Amino acid sequence: MNGNARYLDLLERVLTNEIYRDPPAGPHYLVGREYDQRLRETGKDWPSVAHTMAGSRCLRQVRSAVEHILGNGIPGDLVEAGVWRGGVCIFMRALLEVYGDPARRVWVADSFHGMPESGAAGDSELALHEFNDVLAVSQETVEENFRSYGLLDDRVAFLSGWFEDTLPAAPIDRIALLRMDADLRSSTTSILTNLYDKVSLGGIIVVDDYSLPMCSDAVREFRDQRDITDPIHSIDDDAVWWRKGSATPRVESGVSAKAGAS
């Protein structure tokens, strides 16, 4: 194992705090319990100290996705919508640094005020805004987290505000990796509606909270509306990903796939 691989392995463990094993600060049914490696690996707890609540399996998928993007020359930036303490975005920036990518940016999109109160089906029942004492993390805190790893520079761009306000006019030209960790139907729909068309062919789309019915419903509705048939792959019990344009093209009767290729 070379030095770069060792660095990335260690960074993964630091971001999830598998080093010092901090206890969960939520959800409410885990408060007061001790650190559980299985929960941390699968992203089932809200860490009290760690810089991400995405589990180590999700970080490994981010690493694999970025390696695929760089290895295959998929154009575009790396975007996460819903960043909490910024750990996944920090990992994205580290990956670009390790692999010597000179130009791509990491876009850090969040309200930085926690979860909005949403009346969309399923969102109101979950009422995540009631947990903003844990879920709300300021942009200044996220910036300081980047700085602590030596990874805050002009290739880290922040989009601060509710997605419905910031994403329609977001100055992002092309996206190679779009990672959604929005938890809500309304937010998931807003991300897909405003950013999906900017994802390059061959780019990766990740839905961190697909196990939540309102999020999976929003994804299915969007895919159905757009006739997206790219296969969905599981990451862990909650998260999924797909690659844009990976479905076998439909061929009209009597027309060969080769004849239609460019």
Topology summary:
Elements (H helix, E strand, L loop, with lengths): L2 H13 L8 E3 L10 H5 L4 E2 L8 H16 L5 E5 L5 H12 L7 E5 L12 H4 L5 H4 L3 H10 L7 E5 L2 H4 L8 E6 L4 H11 L3 E9 L5 H14 L6 E2 L5 E4 L13 H4 L2
Parallel strand pairs: 3-4, 3-6, 4-5, 6-7
Antiparallel strand pairs: 1-2, 7-9, 8-9
Structural summary, described in words:
This is Macrocin O-methyltransferase. This protein has helices spanning 3-15, 37-41, 56-71, 87-98, 123-126, 132-135, 139-148, 163-166, 185-195, 213-226, 257-260; strands at residues 24-26, 46-47, 77-81, 106-110, 156-160, 175-180, 199-207, 233-234, 240-243. With 262 residues, it is an alpha/beta fold. It has a single domain, classed as Rossmann fold (3-Layer(aba) Sandwich), CATH 3.40.50. A seven-stranded mixed β-sheet has the order 5-4-3-6-7-9-8, sandwiched between helices. Helix 4 (87-98) links the parallel strand 3 and strand 4 (106-110). Helix 1 (3-15) runs antiparallel to helix 4 and helix 9 (185-195) packs parallel to helix 10.
Keywords:
262 residues, alpha/beta, Rossmann fold, two-stranded antiparallel sheet, 9 strands, 37% helix, disordered C terminus, Macrocin O-methyltransferase, SAM-dependent_MTases_sf, TylF_MeTrfase
**For the record, what is the CATH homologous superfamily label?**
Vaccinia Virus protein VP39
Average the pLDDT over all residues and give the rounded result. Answer: 91
Q: Given the C-alpha coordinates, what overall shape results?
A: globular
Strand order, biggest sheet? 5-4-3-6-7-9-8
CATH architectural designation: 3-Layer(aba) Sandwich
Pfam families: TylF
Protein name: Macrocin O-methyltransferase
InterPro entries: SAM-dependent_MTases_sf (IPR029063), TylF_MeTrfase (IPR008884)
Organism: Prauserella isguenensis
